[in-house]
Design brief:
The protein has about 90 residues and is mainly alpha-helical. Helix content is about 60%, strand content about 0%. It starts with a helix and ends with a helix.
Length: about 90
C-alpha cells in the first residue's frame, strides 16, 4: 500500500481507490480475476478494510468502554442487551 501511494505520488483519497489496490494485490496472490464478488463471495478488500476500520476507530475498545459504562448504570438485578455481528465483537461481549 505504501509502495502504491509512492507510485501514484499522492495518498489515497477515497475507499474505492484503496479497495482497488487491495483487490489487485489479492488477485496477484490468490489468482482470481478482478470482479466485485469472487465465486459469489464479498469483495476481497472487505475484510482488509474492516480490519483497518476496526483498528483505526478502536471499535473493540469503544465496545468495552460502552459496556462498562452501561453496567455501572444498571440497578441491581437490571438487564442489558448487547447485539453483536462479528466474532471479535462477540469475544469482547
Amino acid at each position: 500500500l505504501v509502495d502504491e501511494q509512492a507510485r501514484r505520488g499522492r495518498p489515497f483519497t477515497n475507499m474505492k481507490d484503496f479497495a482497488e489496490v487491495v483487490l489487485q494485490s489479492r488477485a496477484a496472490i490468490d489468482g482470481f480475476e478482478e470482479v466485485h464478488t469472487v465465486n459469489g463471495r464479498d469483495h476481497p478488500a472487505r475484510l482488509t478494510l474492516q480490519a483497518l476500520r476496526l483498528f483505526m476507530n478502536q471499535e473493540l475498545e469503544e465496545l468495552r468502554a460502552g459496556m462498562e459504562g452501561a453496567f455501572k448504570l444498571l440497578v441491581p438485578g437490571g438487564r442489558s442487551v448487547v447485539c453483536v455481528f462479528k466474532r471479535k465483537e462477540n469475544d469482547v461481549v
